[in-house]
Amino acid sequence: MSPKQKRRLLAISLIVLGAGTATALALYALSGNVSYLYSPTAVRDEGLEPGARFRLGGVVLEESIQRQGGLKVGFTVTDRVNEHAVFYEGILPDLFREGQSVIAHGRLREDGVFEADKVLAKHDETYMPKEVMDAMERARGDGASPAKAY
Amino acid sequence: MKLPLWFHRLGSPPTFYAFAARLQPWCYGLAAALAVYGLYAGLVLAPPDYQQGDSFRIIYVHVPAAWMSMAVFVFMAVAAFVALVWRMKLAETLVLTAAPTGAAFTLITLVTGSIWGRPMWGTWWDWDPRLTSELVLFFLYLGVIALAQAFEDRRAGRRAACLLALVGVVNVPVVHFAVTWWNSLHQGPTVRMFGESSIHPSMLWPLLAMAVASKLYFAGSLFARTRVALLEQEAGSAWVRRELEARGHV
Fold this sequence. Notes:
The complex is a heterodimer of chains A (150) and B (250). Chain A has helices at 3-33, 40-46, 130-144; strands at residues 53-60, 66-67, 72-78, 83-89, 101-108, 114-121. Chain A contains 3 helices and 6 strands. The termini of chain A are far apart. The longest helix of chain A has 31 residues, at 3-33. In chain A, β3 and β4 form a beta hairpin. A 5-stranded mixed β-barrel of chain A has the order 1-3-4-6-5. The interface between A and B is large, with 39 and 45 residues.
């Protein structure tokens, strides 16, 4: 390698290293300040005031969905530690149901209920044929209640 | 650090031209065969997903395209590095001939993801970290393409484009890790290099076939586009004249 190439190698490496470090620092700083979504526990810990706009994320609590006529629906979002009541009027995505992860965009009302103007269903990364999933659930069911076999 | 001889040889335009011409039909042929298998097995044979039904099948286009959108940029960054340090003209050409294909893969990723997101998530678009960084990647591709043509002096423009391709590569890990670093809307990685993938084998094989097919397609298109670019750049040189004469064009 000629001295000229060595100089270029050094300069280019420094530029890339600098850009990489700058990005890493920016991301590190952002991760402390910016949250894409708040879990019910985070909402409580951060002491978010009524009127605050944010995204509330968590799982739809079982048996918490109440249809209130028309497109109005109330449900509870939980992170299995804390819970938060949500009100929404609009069309829910296909995957919305009990036990599904959802992200609600909206703001906190005075009465502490989160009023959503958009509810998104978060999909998990599992891809399974229906028969396999059913078989797995059966197997899990059998394992959970071995007493039945006797 | 001394580069091996074959590397120097391959860097010469006529050698690369002939090398690319030999490999190009193989890349295209294998890519087509794998894509036919992958699309048939993925869209027809694979069972519907337990949650998403048939909508999940968009994975067979979306995920390979997304992998390529990152892989092509990394390829461009490596080529740009070689071009900037060793002033290798062929590497510069490769950066610019790869960019439109990478941009196309990125656009396919964004569009198919959006189409899938509407019924599944309930929105066409969300400023989720993964989605946003992929959009930034698309703009970086456009930036590389535009920068190369923004200078009066062609060489200067190409060098600027190489620098952007090299610096822009810091965005690739952000795209890749966005779903792990932030708790976001986009799901985590399904197919893992290490550890168990959370996808059933009957659905995985067509996906892997499509992933290899997209890589081979990229290689084939890169060879084809680079050959044209080399003929253009080297127009008037002895080897180009010989090449054209051999084909009866002169």
